[in-house]
Amino acid sequence: MKNKYFYCFSLVLFISFVHGQEEPDFFFEKVDRYIYSPNHEKKRSKDYFKRLKEMSETGNQKAYYFLGLYQKEGIGTQPNLKKSLRSFKKAYELGDPVAAYSVGYYYLKGLGEVEQDYIKAYRWFKKSQTPMAKHWMAKMEFLGLGREKNKKKAIKILKENELYNSKVLLPQYEENQDVKENPSDFSDFLNTNSINSIHSLSSFHDTPEINFLEGKWIGEYLELEWSKNKPLRILPIELEIAKNEGINGALEALLRISDSTAKSSGNYNAGSLRFTNLSMPVKKKFTDYPNFTHLITDISEIELRSVQAAGENLLLGRIKTYHPVWKEPGNPVLILLRKETTISEEAARAFELQSSDFVKIYPNPVPNYCLINYELPLDSKVKIEISNYYNTPRYHRTIFDGTRLKGEHTLEIFELPSAPGSYIVSIVHNGKKETKIIIKQ
User: Which residues pair with 233 in a beta bridge?
Assistant: First the structure.
């Protein structure tokens, strides 16, 4: 009888142990696995978070570390990078070296309302000395983040690091250690303006009209490092925009970045292009995981400016990105685009009828836009202007001022005078001035 009571008492203890009273290490293993589980249950998430909070209040370093992860990921609580950072710092103060890596990661990217700082990031990684911290130190050395590039040192760190991610990354770095980056097609513009100032848009104030955006734009997608001082890589990009007729500011957009394509409806207002739902896999330059060659990227908004640079009319954009798989903002991104001017059959016929004229216009009379076509006998410095004529208010605008190669050129114009009447289009090239009268409707 005595043995029977002892058995029942032991069973109760066992059940109590399994349901919430298990040893901390066993609980932390469950908590760690749960972070990467594809399915999070609301009740379990809250229970885990509550227990982590209770354990952290007793001064448990691991509880503070996992509390920081749950606050970052929004498991059992609202995502809060600021609170997450505080938890990681507390975990490190209590002796957890892994938490120092997480603090360094926040400084690396400027997360959690901390000011982005490569020097502090590297210091925290050194304090941690965990495999993942060493992995990121290698990345910083190879990419020159906050320091001169030292690709040999980066490769040495990866070779000595036991982390699986480092073993995957190592051959990619070895293969690319002598590869030089191709210069941007917009080098003149980038050399004239610092990357940081371009990204801030502080010097660019011309917000394009929606009519100006219509059509196909081709150029470069510049993924910047987190201090916004230089590109980490440059990818080809195409942006096609079409208005939804009858709906003010509404449009359809087709976006191609490298080998990926996505479509979305959106809305444009005062330089801000916002998308309803635009998500696409963007090709990675280097990967830490086999077959993880693309990263799902949500694009919610592009801030756009029209710019004239080196004699070209360019479209400049700052993209807001987010990586849902990591639950954090993406790298700062710039796009630089040129308009691909398409000539309809009707426009081509109109230009053919004007073949004896140097300056060809379609349509004429002009509504809110027109095409200006001309052909240069040799490479020339070209200046195109629109001015008022005798029956119109005073008006003067330089449409283009730069160098153009020998051959045929077509320029699409949306910024036309508002008052109806007669205007003069003039093209100056090689010391000659060619003109044509247009009738603004």
Answer: 223
Distances (CA, A) of 373 to 70, 353, 400, 408, 426: 60, 12, 13, 7, 12
Dihedral angle of Cα 112, 117, 119, 124, to the nearest 10 degrees = 0
pTM above 0.70, yes or no: yes
Task: Report CA-CA distances (Å) from 420 to 210, 305, 389, 426.
Answer: 21, 27, 11, 18
Question: Which of the four pLDDT bands, split at 50, 70 and 90, describes residue 153?
Answer: very high
Pair type for strands 231-243 and 360-362:
unpaired
β-sheet bridge partners, residue 241: 215, 253
Mean per-residue pLDDT for 105-120?
A: 93
Q: What angle do CA 412, 337, 185 make, to 5 degrees?
A: 115
Query: How many other C-beta atoms can be found within 10 angstroms of the C-beta atom of residue 133?
Result: 25
Cα 418 to Cα 398: distance, rounded to the nearest angstrom: 16
Q: Would you state the structure tokens that stand for residue 85, as one six-digit string?
A: 């950072």
- pLDDT class for 16, splitting at 50, 70, 90? very low
DSSP string, 67-129: HHHHHHHTSSS---HHHHHHHHHHHHHTT-HHHHHHHHHHHHHT-TTPPP-HHHHHHHHHHH-
Reference 319, options 309, 328, 329, 307; nearest CA is: 329
Rounded to whole angstroms, what are the CA distances from 191 to 74, 146, 195, 198, 220?
A: 42, 20, 9, 11, 15
CB 128 within 8 A of CB 98: yes
Distance CA 56, CA 339 (A): 57
Contact between 299 and 253 under an 8 Å Cβ cutoff? The reply is no
Rounded-to-integer distance, Cα 58 and Cα 42, Å: 25
Which of 290, 228, 280, 289 lies closest to 258 in space, CA to CA?
A: 280
d(CA 348, CA 129): 66
Q: What percentage of the chain carries pLDDT values higher than 90?
A: 70
For 269, other C-beta atoms within 10 Å of its C-beta total 11
Stretch among 51-65, 112-126, 393-407 having the lowest mean pLDDT: 393-407
Type of residue numbered 136: W
Amino acid sitting at position 118: Y
DSSP class of 285: S
- Count CB atoms within 10 A of the CB of residue 276: 11
